[in-house]
Amino acid sequence: xxxxxxxxxxxxxxFPVRRxxxxxxxxxxxxxxxxxxxxxxxxxxxxxxxxxxxGKSTLGRAILQLVGATxxxxxxxxxxxxxxxxxxxxxxxxxxxxxxxxxxxxxxxxMTAGNIVAEPIRIYGLRENRAAIRDRVRExxxxxxxxxxxxxxxxxxxxxxQQQRIGIARALACxxxxxxxxxxxxxxxxSVQAQVINxxxxxxxxxxLTYLFIAHGLNVVRHVSTKVAVMYLGKIVEVGDRRALFRDxxxxxxxxxxxxxxxxxxxxxxQRRPIILRGDxxxxxxxxxxxxxxxxxxxxxPACSAAEPPLSPSGGTLAACIRAGEPVPxxxxxxxxxxxx
Amino acid sequence: MSGAPLLEIEDLAVEFRTGGGVVxxxxxxxxxxxxxxxxxxxxxxxxGKSVTSLAIxxxxxxxRGKITRGAVRFEGRDLLTLTPAEMRQVRGGSIGMIFQxxxxxxxxxxxxxxxxxxPLELHLGMSRRAARARAxxxxxTVGIPEAVRRLDNxxxxxxxxxxxxxxxxxxxxxEPKLLIADEPTTALDVxxxxxxxxxxxxxxxxxxxxxxxITHDLGVVAGAADRLAVMYAGRVxxxxxxxxxxxxxxxxxxxxxxxxxxxxxxEGALSPIGGQPPDLSALPPGCAFAPRCDFARPxxxxxxxxxxxxxxxxxxxxxxxxxxxxxxxxxxGVAP
Lengths: 341, 336
Description:
The structure holds 2 protein chains of 2 kinds. In chain A, 30% of the residues lie in helices and 23% in strands.
């Protein structure tokens, strides 16, 4: 792996919180992404995991320039992309595409599948004439495993898995370098999900694509990623090689996340001792001081609320924790909490 | 697990009239559940798993949907023959239910205190004051801090995980003998899912409830279910002890599902089930899975296979004895 295709440096995306109607004023900000530095190498898949509100989707949108960065730098192919406009922004957007979670909602119901895939080819002028566009659409249909006879059908005539293939074909139509998959397989049934995962892997090999794969499902991320970053409340808490991170997670949040994920195997499942975190994710308007995870962390010490720990090497990964790598006790599986029933 | 089963579903069928014709969402489902037992119903969209649970509660909406045949015997009484008033006593009384989306299943314009008090007054005949005190206890039991104060909050003032806790509190308020949980954690994050599954497990142990856990997630049933029923296109295609179904799946669909999930020790490509999920308004004659099945022979397309015993308490709707290990081999071109 040579130089990164995409790099973010101390990227922040804050959304203002406003109060009042006539005399509107800003009373605070949602720190959705709050100082994220990461790099994706050409041809690799970076899996970005986190729970709702962690900022993973906002990070994806900021990289695509769909939301503006508050501060920080995004380098794509060594060029700064924040603040691009006009033809330069259009050229960047062609090279960075998005596949959405809900395949049906992301397709225009009034356009045929063929037109949906042809539209970016026309917009970017990637083919000379109508015949060439039609041939390219058929080629893209074949590439994603759709029958080219169905170009004149409308989105609702396809199953969920097929709709997602149309969304992928539309992204590929732009001949992109990077595809951001935002929960791209989460809404699909298990058997169809596996088909789409295999398709994405196959396309990556054939076309040399780079993926930012945003998901909350850990089994899927483990399967598709080369590198994994874990986000919590706007920050990357751990990042590293997929194997190292799943084999020996260093950050207590990563440990909790991995241990909380049920295993599709009754025997292993009976031996699993999940670390059950207390409470919910705090508000990103007013995140906890110091380490943002300290309010839910089973091994937090007073120093954790004093200063924000930087990402530093621990085990085989980088983790933002002063107690990285230390064991996290899993509670006894039989409940100890006293009950009133 | 002694004596008569708590719940016995016999030859249940549910149809829906749609613009595209009649959809047989559930077609001849047989299931039994002992007291205190956990049955996992596993299936994908359109398999009929949720409609089965709605039919148990008689919540299939007329006039489009109709239970066309079968019996649902709960403690010996066929729920399908009860009057609407009798059925209301069962719902939320001896059978509780929780749904996937806690926001849409709670009433947004009533405080959660009001929604918790209602079943207690209705089923247990408690006074308003006693019911309110009990409601606060229930909220505390499901792990909601400052329970008394939060009784006056509305659903939107709770997070997704907290709302699901409220739903569970309502469902178990009358200490039901059966809890039906339809995708209870699908809308929730992983760490919150772990909390909710742990809560359901704890309440089940304390109250001695039987549980029907409906999910598409093999991980969720692997840990929680004593027995498993796999549904496809409105039928139970395989059922048996959870360990046996996982270790030795016999129906090619179940085998395919097991191969479709990424596993920790598996680095290569997944072997998904080919083809598309079935169109319920145009099901093929014979085995509904045959068009996607690597082992299908002409006979599979002629008649629906009856459940066949393949192990102790383990049955599969497949005419052939299939070796799970050979599924991959068939894909690579070796003849069955």
